[in-house]
């Protein structure tokens, strides 16, 4: 688990809780895992020396202190690997007839605020979360959603990170549940599961059984009617000490005209929370 808890304020009164998973090569929890080529300090010296020679300077790798340059990595990956935010453009070209926002167009104010965590750890894997179930969870919390809050769906699936089961053993949001949250003014919804919808195989099975295209990515495609972003592959929601009023920042990386971007959500928890 990618858990990080660090004292934040000088007096130690605030703890930072990392709500993300990282980028790993060859991990069984990604159908399209990142490819990462690691370059050590010897490689770094050779590469930097070669670049300086191209600029007209006579330098060799051995000229660097201790013969070491700068370590680096070459990455090949999709912006939907690791914890990431999907932009409305991911769901379709338009939202309610208007051009859909790409990740570089997402307002930063959408990505910071107080989070509400809804507990769906009791839901059966491969099942669909309904609007009534979302309303029931909010009633249990005695909480009325406000515009600007972020809502996170806790399934417990992050405990399976690193295994193939992570891809198949989680419940997903339904279209009506998603629309209900957005209609309350919620712009960012997150999940600690691999995907926001049900597992791929379950959607395929339901489509084949019913011959109904509404079984395919219903929560994602709800974003063609209502504007919102979703965060997938979160983690450590169970480490939060309360279910409402949790300050969170979740700013995505800016990628020009892209359907999504990597994000590292962090919760700020006061000592007396």
What tags apply to this protein structure?
Glucose Oxidase, domain 1; alpha/beta; 19% helix; 273 residues; 6 helices; ten-stranded mixed beta sheet; globular; 2 domains; single chain; two-stranded antiparallel sheet
What's a concise summary of this model?
By secondary structure, the protein is of the alpha/beta class. 19% of the residues lie in helices and 23% in strands. The protein has two domains: 5-28 and 78-270, Putative cyclase (Glucose Oxidase, domain 1), CATH 3.50.30; 35-76, no CATH class.
Task: Report what the structure shows.
- The protein has a 10-stranded mixed beta sheet. The protein has a two-stranded antiparallel ribbon with strand order 3-4.
- The two termini are 23 Å apart.
- It has 2 domains: 217 residues, Putative cyclase (Glucose Oxidase, domain 1), CATH 3.50.30; 42 residues, no CATH class.
- It has 273 residues and is an alpha/beta fold.
- The mean pLDDT is 95.
- It has 6 helices and 16 strands.
- It is globular and about 70 Å long.
- One of its GO terms (biological process) is L-tryptophan catabolic process to kynurenine.
- This is Cyclase family protein.
